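call fold(seq) -> tokens
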Amino acid sequence: MSDRLSALDAFRFTEELMSKAPVPGGGGAAALIGSLAAALGAMAANLTLGKKKYLSYEKTHLFVIAEMNVLRLRFLELIDEDAAAFEPLSRVYSLGKDSPNYEERLRAATLDACRAPFEMMQRCCDVVLLLEELYDKCSVLLLSDVGCAALAARCAMEAAAMNVFVNTRLLPKDPESEDFSRAASEMLRDFLPRSQAVSDAVMSHLRSQK
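ret:
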């Protein structure tokens, strides 16, 4: 297997995902879905760019394309960062609780395992903000892609949140762990409804057509 999971093609990535290999797992899948959300948003802007009816929104389209591409690439990096954080945590799990500095090592590895999925959530929020900006400046022929991107961003955010909470629950009284949990909960509270609102608006538009 490649050292970089993000370098695998779709066939190999899903083959690894279904195998007994410890990575990729839910975190890697969440990051991949996030990258697809960003790519879909960029595609909708790209295919609208230059169309006569939408020329007044050209700056928005160029901005969305550039920002979504940055996000797409960052999500792919997070696949590998999430995988890299799993090995130290797995190694600590294999130790006995009477091992030297066990609690300290467990805390450090657990918090490190939170970082990649937590950033995935942040980047999903960024995708949602861009989709909100794009929604009414996009060709109606591409609205379904905007809606799919919003749903993918929502899915990626919730999946990443699970990968935050599965770790923070191991450190229930740790201040940094509590900070991760609190911030993750706030993102879910604020941005799940916003991503859903974009997809609902798209669905309503599509179903209203004769």
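The two ends are 50 Å apart (CA to CA).
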